[in-house]
Write a structure and sequence with these properties.
Number of strands: 19
Distance between the termini: 40 Å
Order of helices and strands: HEHEEEHEEEEEEHHEHEEEEEHEEEHH
Strand order of the largest sheet: 12-13-14-15-11-17-19
Structural class: alpha+beta
Oligomer: single chain
Strand content: 15-25%
Largest sheet: 7 strands, antiparallel
Number of domains: 2
Helix content: 25-40%
């Protein structure tokens, strides 16, 4: 969970700063260059996380006369960025969690970074690794705040009871929240912080790479998706395993999810369309198949995808409704079932890749962009779903997004897919996507009953 805290509350911490069970001060630490300093702030965060949450203020020093500014104020605060702090958290904390970082002025006007550490953990947070040379932080140790205040491991039965009782209360509260979600149909989404630009940058770079590949092709050729396309992109956030390029290739093969005949991120082995390494990622373009004439490559089978060992993935595909195997004029139909299948498959691929590539808990930011919708009518190309009236989209493009716990995808797939896709279906004359339809189609997809 993320602590929502006002700027006024953060400023109050600097009015008369004193260390307490939920507030610790540290001097100007070199979090970019010193592994000892990284371990120091990690220990403070671990202890406060296990004690119900709180704050770590940097650039202050506790003396006999009180808390004063530490020497060595940096010229800027690049070394105290939120990404840097959370990198330390992911390296040292198990399970990892998100910390917010704010630059806060004191009453005198001097600025200090304050790390907001969440509480509410259902299990004690342990140290994933030891500090340099085994100092400062001990691997697998659990730290709490003690009177003094100081950060140490629990020693007495009373200290352990307090820690475990706090975790049990949090677990009970989570259980009641989940029951409420099931009753109300709430979506199991992660609380959103300010969206970073990384996923958007990855998506834009992937589009540019695809445009480079199709540049020599005729404007109306199938692999250019002249009538529209959809792209899925996701980012996995967590602690990555260190793997070699050859291991990454094998890992992508193991992560393939084959629920339907044309799975997302299909890893072919035939010469000419097999994936290849480029710019630190693995890329595959089926639209350039040398065994077929370009004009024979239809949009539905001209996928372009790329996956990065950093945990980013991108898939671009034309509409199956525009494929050569259907007797439909292109750009006229939008199947009521296919988006449910494709999004469901891709989320399951993300979950599998997260399990194979990342350690412990991971979250997933997922986005979908549909283009070429205007003028299409909602239909059932298999004729299994009765469409009682003609529903047409007038908006051409829509972008959808969600942020979820990777482990929630398998058990909660319908609850994730339905609210994610509802705005897309709503473009077709206010069509309301029924949860029952989503549940039935995902069950059909996963069982292979199609």
């Amino acid at each position: 969970m993320v602590i929502e805290v006002s700027r006024e509350r953060l400023k109050d911490l600097l009015v008369d700063p004193r260390e307490s069970p939920d507030f610790e001060v540290k001097n100007w630490l070199d979090l970019q260059g010193s592994n000892e300093d990284k371990a120091t702030v990690a220990k403070a965060i671990l202890a406060i996380a296990n004690s119900g949450g709180g704050f770590v203020a940097l650039g202050l020093l506790e003396t006999d006369a009180g808390v004063v500014e530490a020497e060595g104020r940096p010229a800027d605060f690049e070394g105290y960025s939120q990404d840097l702090i959370n990198g330390i958290v992911h390296n040292y904390c198990d399970p990892p969690f998100h910390c917010a970082v704010h630059i806060v002025p004191s009453p005198e006007g001097a600025l200090y970074p304050i790390v907001v550490v969440p509480g509410g953990h259902r299990v004690p947070v342990r140290a994933r690794r030891a500090g340099p040379h085994g100092n400062i932080v001990t691997s697998n140790a659990i730290y709490v705040r003690k009177p003094g205040p100081r950060s140490e491991t629990p020693q007495s039965a009373q200290e352990w009871d307090a820690l475990l009782d706090r975790c049990l209360r949090n677990r009970r509260d989570d259980m009641f929240d989940q029951i409420r979600d099931l009753i109300t149909g709430a979506v199991p989404q992660i609380e959103r912080e300010a969206e970073p630009a990384a996923l958007e940058e990855w998506t834009n770079a992937s589009h540019l790479r695809w445009e480079h590949l199709v540049e020599p092709l005729a404007e109306n050729s199938g692999p250019r998706f002249p009538h529209g396309s959809y792209c899925f992109a996701y980012e996995i956030i967590g602690e990555r395993r260190h793997i070699t390029p050859a291991q990454f290739s094998e890992l992508l093969k193991r992560s393939e999810t084959r629920y339907t005949g044309w799975p997302p991120f299909w890893y072919p082995t035939r010469e000419g369309i097999e994936p290849y390494p480029i710019d630190g990622s693995v890329e595959c373009w089926l639209g350039g198949d040398p065994q077929m004439r370009i004009q024979d490559n239809d949009p539905a089978h001209s996928d372009y995808w790329r996956v990065s060992p950093e945990g980013f993935a991108f898939l671009l595909r034309g509409f199956q409704e525009d494929g050569d195997d259907l007797d439909l004029p292109p750009a006229t139909a939008f199947d009521v079932t296919l988006p449910i299948w494709r999004v469901g498959e891709t989320l399951l691929h993300a979950r599998r890749l997260a399990n194979n590539l990342f350690e412990g808990t991971a979250t997933i930011r997922f986005s979908a962009i549909y283009s070429g919708l205007a003028g299409r009518a909602l239909t059932s190309i298999e004729g299994r779903r009765l469409m009682r009236q003609r529903r047409v989209a007038r908006q051409n493009t829509i972008e959808l997004s969600t942020h979820i716990d990777a482990n929630s995808i398998d058990p909660n797939l319908p609850e994730i897919v339905q609210p994610l896709l509802s705005p897309l279906y709503g473009l077709f004359d206010f069509f309301e996507l029924p949860m029952q339809l989503v549940t039935e189609e995902l069950s059909r997809m996963r069982s292979g009953n199609f």
